[in-house]
Structure formats: structure tokens, C-alpha cells
Amino acid sequence: MELKWLEDFVSLARTGSFSRSAEERHVTQSAFSRRIQALEAWLGVPLIDRSTYPTTLTTAGREFRENAEETVRMLHGSRSALRASARPSNQSVAVAALHTLALSFFPAWLRRIEAQTGPLGSRLLPDDFHACVQALVEGGYDFLLTFHHPSVPNPLDPTLFPHLVVGKDSMVPVRSASPVADEASLPLLGYSQNSFLGRVATLAQAASSGPPATVSHTNENAMAEALRFMVLEGHGLAWLPGSLVVTDLAEGRLVAMGEAVPLEIRLYRNAAHRRSSVAAVWQAAETLDTSTMQDRNMPV
User: Fold this and answer.
1) Residue of 32, 148, 176, 214 with fewest CB within 10 Å of its CB?
2) What is the pLDDT of residue 214?
3) Is the pTM of this model over 0.85?
4) Cβ atoms of residues 130 and 253 within 8 Å
């Protein structure tokens, strides 16, 4: 059982609407519904009467609501007390970042930031888009490093979570450099459709010329690094971040199969966090020249 399931249920009990609670919890309605179902499966009883509108609680749901609300209050209260007692250093920052950016972008970017701020302690959460957004919104992290494409909406309120463009990347269709009989018949290796990179890859593949590719493998954990190894072993074609494959392309291990789709690299900030280290990182990020980061992360 996960805390976010209880938080989802408490929200739904209050709003009586799957759509409003999904928006409040910064997840898609389908993902929100799956989490409520997971809680019901864990408890072994239905909590929601889905035959009525607006949504109402079952008898079990009404009985469980008070316990769920109290559990959430107690856990959040304990977390706040522990964080207050820990008193994190003003010279440290916490960053949630997409897996690929945590590997290919964050280390060099942080070094450039520290050239202006001096040494910083850092805490890094590499995860998928939804988990990173949730980590920022819940207040446990100061910053979010993520890709951005205009076709994929971002749920963050810009007044609460302003952003800077701190670099450029791309999505590139690639295959193994090993000879193939027919490039057009290469199967497509895909991401989970609900992942950020999965959405961009689906849009890019649909816009590409040639017949639709047959999906032979779906990587459910949204890690582009795992798809890269599948491509290197000759399993098919995949859309991968240029920063992840730039060396493979330059050294001839992978071959680009079409035009790259440009992406921005964005840094989002929790505006409520005003420690001196957070302000210093934000100020340094504003002054960095992103063109050099673009050169590092675009494929050759």
C-alpha cells in the first residue's frame, strides 16, 4: 500500500469527482482511477460506488474515510517534524530529474552552476515524469529537470513553479549499425504510452515518412537507457534522446534513421522554497549560456 493511494482516496472523498481529483493530484484520470482500484484491491472491498453521479462512497468507503484522513495527517505531520529537526543546510539543493537528464545533463550542468555559487550539496531523484512532478509539488524537492515539447502538456502552475530553459536536446530515431536486409521492416521499440518520452516518440513516429512501424517491445519503466541497449543489440528501431546516443552515433555503433525532433531542457523551481542555496542556483541558471549545453546534447 502506498501513501499516495490514501491521499488520492481522501481527495476523491472530498471532491466526489475523478476528473477534479486527478487534476488536483497532477496525474491523468486513468492513472488516478488505477490507483483508487489498487487501494480497493489492497483493502479487499470496494470504496467507491461507480453507479452514481456524482461519485459517492460505499458503506466501507465511508467507514474507511476517517481512518485514511487521520493516517495522512499523522504521516505528513511526522514528516514535517522530522524535516524541521533535520534542518537541511542552506548550501544544499534537491533536484528531481528524468532518468536520461540525471545521467547525461545534470552532472555537467551542476558543475557549471557551482562555478558561480561555490560548492553545493545536492540530492538527486532520477525517476519518470509523473513521479518527478509529484516530488516537486509535494515540496520534497526544490527543482525539477525535465524535457519539454509543445505537444505534451505540463500540469505545473507557472506562478507556483516558474521555469527556465537550461539546454536543448532532441529525440532521434536510431537503429543498430549492423547490416539489415530491409530497414523499412525494422520493428519499433517503444515506451509506455503515458510516459513523457513515449508521447513524444508516438508523435514523432506518426509524423515520420514511410509505413507505420510494428511495435515489438514496450519498455514499461520509461527508461530510455534500457531501450538504447535493446537497439544496440539489434532488436529494432527506437526514438532516443540525442544526448544519450551522441557518442554511439559518432563512433558508428548506431545509425540515425530520420530527422531529429527538438526538445527543450527545462528547470522548474518550487517558488515557495527560498533558501539561499535555492536562490543562488536559480540566479546562476538564469545567467548560463544554454548554447554550449545544446552542443553537448544534440546528436552529431
Assistant:
1) 214
2) 63
3) no
4) no
